[in-house]
Each structure stands twice: as C-alpha cells, then as structure tokens.
Amino acid sequence: MTAGRRIFQNIRALAAAKAATMASGLVTAAWTARVLGPDSFGVLGFGTSLMAYAALFVNLGLSTYAIREIARDREQAGPLSEHVLTLRTVLAVIVGALYAAFVLALDKPMAVKAVLLMQAVQLLGNALVLDFVYQATERMGVIATREIGTSIGSMLLVFLLVRGPEDAILAAAITGGSITVNALVMIGRFRRDFGSLRPRIDLKIWREILTAAAPMAVGVFAWAIFTHLDVVMLGFMAPHTEVGWYSAAVKIQTLANLAGNIVMNAFLPQLAAAYGDLDQMRERMRAYATVMLTVGALVVAGGVALAPAILATLFGDAYDPAALPLRILMVASAVVYANMILGNPLLVWHRQTGYMIAMLSGGVLNALLNVWWIPRYGIQGAAMATLTAELAATLAIAWLHRRVVGELYGGLAAKAVLCGGLAVAAGLILHRVAAPLLNKAPAIADFLSGSVAVVGVFAAATLLTGLVRPTRLRRLTGVTV
Q1: How far is Cα of residue 95 from the mean position of the Cα atoms in its chain?
Q2: What is the residue extent of each domain of the chain?
Q3: DSSP string spanning 76-107?
Q4: Any stretches that span the bilayer, and where are they (predicted)?
Q5: 262 near 294, Cβ under 8 Å?
Q6: Degrees, nearest 5: CA angle 449-453-459
Q7: Which of 3, 329, 342, 375 is the most exposed place for a label (fewest CB within 10 A)?
Q8: What does the alpha-carbon distance between residue 324 and residue 259 come to, in Å, rounded to a whole number?
Q9: Are 366 and 226 in contact (CB under 8 A)?
C-alpha cells in the first residue's frame, strides 16, 4: 500500500470518529451550557483547563516519544507500551494527590472545589489510554472506535442525568468516568492485537525515556499554555459568568481545531518515516501543508463569519457576549493551523528542543499579556493575548522549519488566505442582506444559510485558485513508502 493511500485511510477513519465526536460533543456542550447556565458552566470550564495542566504532568511527552519510536520499530510496541503505561499510572497517583491539595487550598466555595476534585478522575483515564500505539502503527480505526464510544457515552449520560446548575459535579464525573472506562476497554483490545500487558518497573529505562521525552513535554506544556491559560486566569481574575461566556467560545475553537488534528495525526507517522530523506520530507510536507491549509481556511472562515449564529444556535442568547472573543479566537485558530503545519513535524524530526523553546517563549508572552489585558479588556483581552502569543511562537517555529526543509509554503498559504477571505465576505454579506428576513427565524436558520454561502464560495475559490487540484491528490496517493 502506498504511503498516500495509507494517509487517506487514516484521515477517513479519524474523520469518521471526529465527525461523531464533534457532533456528540457539540450537543453535549450545548446541553450542558444551557442547563448549567453561564456561571456553573464557567466553573466546569475552569476545572477542565486546570485538569488539562495536571494531565500534562501525567503524560510528560511520553505519547509523542512513543509514537516516534514505535513508528520506526514496531517491535517496540509491546515493551514500550508497558513501560509507558506503568510510568504514567505512577505519575497519575502523584499528580492526583498534588492536584487535590492545590484545589483544597484555593479560595473558592466548597461546591466549586467539589467539581474540580471530581474532574481528577480523568487523570487515571489519561494515564491508561493507548492511542499512541495505534497512531504509530497507523491503525486509526481503533482510536476512532474509542473516541466515538467515549463521546456518545458521555452525551447519553449527560442527557439523562444533568438537569440543572446543581448537577455540575455530576457532569464532571461523567466526563472522567467515560474516559477511564474506554481506556480500560482499549487495553483489552491491545491484548488481542499485541499480547498481554504487565506492569514494568525499571528506573533506568524510565530515566532514559523521560530524558528523551522531556523536550517534547515542555513543548506540549507550552502549547497548553495557549490552549488553557486564558480560561485558568479568567477563573482567578473574573466572575464565573464571564468564564462561562469565554468557555463557550473556547469550546467552539477547540472543535474547529479538531479537523487539523485529524490531518496532523494521519500524516505524522509518514512524516516521521521520511526523516533523513530531504526530497521525501519536502514532498510529504507539501502534501501535508496543502491539506491542512485547505481545511484550516474553511474552518476559520466559517468561524469568523458565523460566530454570533454559532453561539446562538449551540448555547443560546445568554452567550451573546462571547461573539467578539470567538471571532478573535478563530483568527488565532488560523495561526494554530500554521503552527501544526510547521511545528509538529519538528517533533518527529529530532528538532524538539527548538520547538520547545519557541513554544515556551510564546507561552510566557501569553501569560504576561493575560495578566496585563484581562483586567483591562476582560474576555476580549484574553482572546487577544492568545492570538498575539500564538503568532509570536509560530514566527519562531517558521524560522526553524525553514532551516530544516528550506520551504515555508508561502504560495499555498496565500491561496488559502484568499479563499478564506472570499468565504468570510460572502458569509457577512449574506447575513447583512438576509438579516431582515431572518429577524424572527430560529438562530439555526441564520447559521445554515451562512454556512451554505461560506462553503459554496470557498469551494469555488479553491478550484479557481488551484489550491485544490485532483492531480495533486493523485500524486499524493501515489507516493510510495
């Protein structure tokens, strides 16, 4: 099988999973936001962001390291998975205890602390997840099945059990419990595919693994600063209602970035395998950049043009104040897609130290800007801090990427920006023209009509500019391993 066909099979499997998880995730988020209200939804969002940082200390870059090593030598899948799972379980216990102590020391009401503590259940699930094995061996269907099971199970339980603001702790328990149960099911699948798993404790090997993974861990931690720091700092510096508004915008931005993650995860093993052959690295990077820029431009255009309609459709009129921050965050998503194109391949090309420094520097800038802008501009300031820091880090990563492969895909990027800009204009013009007709119509009518305009104009523009070419796709699927 050619590398290109394998990539597209991976994209298809992950896209099916993400379509299901995105749909169920949107429904779950919309239901939770509506029944909890902005205040309790803000507490849940604050806890989710705190938990994201705790989970980083459980993973410590181990997944990225394992993907790289297993992609190059699949015989390592069994023993390396045993070491990684054992090490992460130990870390989950330690981090969980420290997290609990931190939460109990916060100057927050006990009801808020209870929600934050319940979310710690996710640490065990994150420790046991075996996605890295199936990503490295390019068996994305297994990952897809787990993600679908987790998202649909969570959605059904939330529908059945979460009914009002007092159920925030139950919503937290459902999320953590679903992740853990699905991780255990996946362990059963691993035993069928690769053999039994047993705990492995070897301090010397653990030290070697952690040393190799450390730069990746710092880079991922810096990435998490962009993703979650704004919500965490708002949780300390703003009312929970504002945190709820902003959490709704972040939820939509996160879902928008999922499409890029699908493409990235599908291409990453092939990019890793190309390391050492400059011509092959460039060829696969051009294919990767084309797909990512096309997907990213459409997603960003839709988010910018339709932000108010998206919020009203999903979360209701109570979340209208999040429209401007959402538009700013969607522009930041354009930078995120550029970062995924230029930065993530560096992690599998042994350039993780440079990536780490760039991301960490951007993360520090993000923290400083949040401290400066949140008190002055509130949730708009948090969004602007994220955009500015993302841009700074991505510029540094672009310099590093060019040093490795000698290209930055400026022509492709210019076409993507043009296509996205035309789509945004079409969406905004249609909204202005149709506003009197849709004045009393449901929000979803505004969203659907705008989506048709954005997608239609974008599709036509990609064909006219040559951003999407059937011949280029055929060349990609013809690339051999």
Answers
A1: 22
A2: 3-477
A3: GHHHHHHHHHHHHHHHHHHHHHHHHHHHHHSS
A4: 45-67, 87-106, 112-134, 141-162, 168-188, 209-238, 288-316, 322-342, 354-373, 379-400, 412-435, 447-468
A5: no
A6: 140
A7: 375
A8: 22
A9: yes
Contact 36, 162 (CB under 8 A): yes
- The total number of residues written for the chain in this structure: 481
The Cβ-side half-sphere exposure at 272, using a 13 Å CA radius, reads 25
Q: What is the structure's pLDDT at 479? A: 45
**CA–CA dist 52, 59 (Å, integer):** 11
**Residue at 366: amino acid letter:** N
Distance from C-alpha of 359 to C-alpha of 348, rounded to nearest angstrom: 16
Residue type, 147: E
Measure the CA–CA gap between 371 and 315, rounded to whole angstroms. 28
* This prediction's pTM: 0.70
254 vs 331, higher pLDDT: 331
Alpha helices by DSSP H, 60-76:
62-72
pLDDT in tens, 433-480: 766 665 666 777 778 888 889 999 999 999 898 887 755 555 544 444
**Beta carbons within 8 Å of 40's beta carbon, 6+ residues apart:** 165, 168, 240, 244
**How far is the C-alpha of 42 from the C-alpha of 45, rounded, in Å?**
5
362: exposed, middle or buried (C-beta count within 10 Å: 0-12, 13-18, 19+)?
buried
Longest dimension (CA), the chain: 69
* Structure-token pair, residue 298: 């459409």
Q: Are the CB atoms for 391 and 335 separated by under 8 Å?
A: yes
- The number of beta carbons lying within 10 Å of the beta carbon of residue 437 is 11
